[in-house]
Amino acid sequence: MPRKKEVVSGNFVKYDAVVLGSGPAGEGAAMKLAKAGKRVAIVDMREQLGGNCTHVGTIPSKALRQTVSSIIRYQRDPMFKKVGDWKQFTMKQVLRNAHKVIQQQVDTHSRFYDRNKIDIYHGRAYIQDKNTVLIFSDDGIKETLVFKQLVIATGSRPYHPAGLDFNHPRVFDSDKILDLDFAIQKIIIYGAGVIGCEYASIFIGLDHKVDLINTQHKLLSYLDDEIADALSYHLREQGVLIRHNEQIDYLETYDDHVVLHLQSGKKIKADAILWCNGRSGNTDGLGLENVALTPNSRGQLAVNDQYQTEVENIYAAGDVVGWPSLASAAYDQGRCAGANMSGELNVKPVKDIPTGIYTIPEISFFGKTEQELTEEKIPYEVGQASFRHLARAQITGDTVGELKLLFHRDTLELLGVHCFGNNASEIIHIGQAVMQSPNNTLKYFIETTFNYPTMAEAYRVAALNGLNRLF
């Protein structure tokens, strides 16, 4: 258990720093501050720690993905019989393993706070002034925390547009979908960003019919074109119907189905709709007006390179500051905020971030795309390795995908790494490490011995493929 909280005056408890939110950003900040010798408190609305990442975001959705991926692998293995009635599973049933993982994560992170003597408060935080936070519990009991510095790491939630009734049992957002407790055959996913594409691959993996509504002209336009095209082709091949350049007009809801009306005149009927179009920062009701902080239209706070807001002693990190809205980056943002608050010098902001997209199969990249290098007129070449040619992929059956290396024609400097396929989010880190090393060159992959058979061998294959293009 955390140490006994020291009441310094009446109901007031004094801290060097108070952190609002116990997700990755809040944890990163709290741990950094505590290790710097600061007296730290963390406040979370839930009775369990971990934030949205642990309870409704990264952990449950990736555990769900893993279960579906296992079902797909089982189904394609000719050595085994059909799984049986798995198509009738509800989301809650598929997520049984996820709940075990969630509790394990809660227990692990609780020990971290205990070990670092960080006080924990559960309740709703309200910023009274630039040195005071009030904590309200469900029964109305109030505690007052006085602080020198504050970190806002309250995360984000799915954006809810006006006109959609998310209380209806067949209208879901990416949080609510985890509680789907009835069987469906067809689902509409509105929004083809990262979350929409991930859930499209999950539901099609469960053999549901999926209509993926994309408000843009292509999927995930910030990806390298070839990787985006590969994802689009794979989803369509699996049975996802992708509709580009569409906008919602209105939604009809019934007891047993929904009908989505698009501005193009199309009408789509399904058992349910999953809204995945945008997220909002959790800043409403925090009392930001009391410290003259104004979030943008999506509830996000502006910060400088030190993750400091316009108020000198108030910092913010994670989804609540917007880009890149990744759990990995959020932790590092919180850590950087804590380092700056502790007076460390030359703390670099979080910029060089590998992107991981947990579709089935995964996508991950680091560095420049072909489009960017072309626009910058950098003379580059491409090295590719198709997974279907790798012994490890042939053994596991995960033959869909490729590794793509972009490198400078003259210096052989590695400029970008792009991967589509099983375990892409793991494979990418080899390229990331090389790109950030002082001896960044394609020759590393030629001169280094890789275990065989492995997926990492794709780097050697792609490097040789690229070098062959130079002659």
Descriptive overview:
InterPro entries: Class-I_Pyr_Nuc-Dis_Oxidored, FAD/NAD-bd_sf, FAD/NAD-binding_dom, FAD/NAD-linked_Rdtase_dimer_sf, Pyr_nuc-diS_OxRdtase, Pyr_nucl-diS_OxRdtase_dimer. NAD(+) binds at residues 191-198, 278. Residues 353-462 form the Pyridine nucleotide-disulphide oxidoreductase dimerisation domain. Pfam families: Pyr_redox_2, Pyr_redox_dim. This protein is an alpha/beta fold and 471 residues long. The chain has three domains: 7-56 and 95-157 and 280-341, FAD/NAD(P)-binding domain (3-Layer(bba) Sandwich); 171-277, FAD/NAD(P)-binding domain; 361-468, FAD/NAD-linked reductase, C-terminal dimerisation domain (Enolase-like, domain 1), CATH 3.30.390.30. Helix content is 30%, strand content 25%. It has helices at residues 24-35, 51-55, 58-76, 91-94, 96-115, 194-205, 225-238, 327-341, 370-375, 391-396, 424-435, 443-447, 457-468; strands at residues 7-9, 12-20, 40-44, 119-122, 124-129, 132-136, 142-152, 156-158, 171-173, 186-190, 209-213, 241-243, 248-253, 258-262, 267-270, 272-275, 279-281, 314-316, 355-357, 362-367, 380-386, 401-408, 414-421. Strands 1, 2, 3, 4, 5, 6, 7 and 18 form an eight-stranded mixed sheet that branches. A five-stranded parallel sheet has the order 9-16-10-11-12. Helix 6 (194-205) links the parallel strand 10 (186-190) and strand 11 (209-213). Helix 1 runs parallel beside helix 8, helix 3 (58-76) packs antiparallel against helix 5 (96-115) and helix 3 (58-76) runs parallel beside helix 6 (194-205). The radius of gyration is 24 Å and the shape is globular. The mean pLDDT is 90.
